[in-house]
Amino acid sequence: MQFSETITMALGSLGVNKLRSGLTMFGITIGVFSVISVMTAIGALQYSIENGLSFLGSNIFQFAKYPANVSAGGNVKKKYQNRRNITYQQALHYQKLMEGNAREICLKCFGYEVKGQAVYNGVKTTPNLLVVGANRGFLTANAYTLGYGRNVNDEDVELARNVIVVGKIVEKRLFPHETPIGKMVRVTGHTYTIIGVLAEKGTAFGQSQDDLCIMPITRFFEDFGSAKRTVNIATQAPSTETYNATFDKAVGAMRIARGLRADQENDFEIYSNDSLKSAFVSVAGVVRVGAFVISFIALVAAGIGIMNIMLVSVTERTKEIGVRKSIGARSKDILRQFLTEAVFISEAGGILGIILGIIVGDLLAAWLKVDLIFPYGWAIAGLLVCSVIGIGFGLYPAYRAASLDPIEALRYE
Length: 413
What we know:
The protein is an alpha+beta fold and 413 residues long. It is built from 14 helices and 14 strands.
């Protein structure tokens, strides 16, 4: 019996009970869909992070009161709430200790609780403008590029000037037909002169990175207060080769600036692009394992469903098997036909699950504004797993069908 004939007969048999075959196939679809959708979304996020979606600039590490994944304005653990703020005086002390040992040191403070809104000639931005107080190092430390105009400089910080550098969204909203350089705008009740415009950076994880304004950190403290604020300190090493040496010296300088004794632990967080990526990879690994376990359980349940349906099919088609054997069909032909039916159900469900999983995973990636991917490895693995399930759970029913005695099968009613 040719293999093409086996496939034709298997498909014909499945077509007789379309609803039953479809429901059995759907069980496989759910299992494969769950793992492929999660892996696609995580893969897209990881690909974007590893290809330039960086929180900080190159060769930069940062000291802060809170970890990178904990917002100072959110519901944070008491461990971080009870820490002392990193004051501006401590930041200046650290900066002095690191003179000559770093290419750039950025002191920055974010006004997350300030509902920033810029107004010019009656036109307003949305009230979610991020207001940042910083020195000249902010652009380098946060991977921004100056579009035109100038950056905040040391003199602006020293004199606490009323100047700001704005993001691209502010320019597009308030100055669609003119240059904003030299124009005076009001931001949350205070007047500032625009001295520069940032180049467009785009979005990261669904959040715009162009909806901000940067002012001298001293002006920020005068206008919005400094008593309950903490300063983040980003340090850029002179080169990749000197990164570790700069990092070790910086930790010591930070401990001195914070007034810590030798027996006291660090009361500040340290993170870099590598640590942020490692943290993401660690979380992604846990999610992958969870998705795999859930999918494995679903696939085993679906495999049991395939075995059950195939056993019912063998019982229903006992007389057909007897007729086929009596006219010359061999046991291996019967075995191959029933195995083909089981594998076809499994593979069809797997292919549908892969397609739906990739669509949903990439839709999530698109919503987060990251690059879309096709998870070739997981798709191939999904097809292989479906083949194993089809063969593994279809083997016993197929063997049972092939072992039927033709005489007894013909008598079956």
